[in-house]
Amino acid sequence: AYCERDAGASRLGEVALVDGDGRIGPLGTSFSDTLIDENAASHIALGMAYELCVDDADKARVNGSEIHVDFMIGSPEQRVLGVDSDGAEHPVLIGGRWQL
Question: Which of 18, 32, 47, 67 has the fewest CB atoms lying closer than 10 Å?
């Protein structure tokens, strides 16, 4: 029901990859403040996207919504792979460490 607020509420608004070397994650503490806690793990958000993260030419395509709800999805076991145009997989974030 929360995502029925507007047309963009149920659409993806953010994807953030967070490595294990940050200052928040190693503390093992939930601060119950999303702006702090989202720095502990990779996360996605439904709803509003941030226009400041895209070029001017793409701003019209940024998802708009009244909501922006973060969901933490990361863990040390998370494996993030990039896939190139030939279908080959390349490690990006493995075991909390950037592979680039």
Answer: 32
Tokens at residue 91, please?
A: 């490690």
Q: Cα–Cα distance between 19 and 92 in angstroms, integer?
A: 10
Q: Work out the burial of residue 62: count CB atoms within 10 Å of its CB; fewer than 13 is exposed, 13-18 middle, 19 or more buried.
A: middle
Report how far residue 84's alpha carbon sits from residue 92's, in angstroms, rounded to the nearest whole number: 12
pTM: 0.80
**Residue 60 backbone dihedrals phi, psi, to 5 degrees:** -65, -20
Q: Per residue in 24-51, pLDDT tens?
A: 888 888 898 888 888 888 999 999 999 9
Residues 28 and 9: their CA atoms lie apart, in Å, by 30
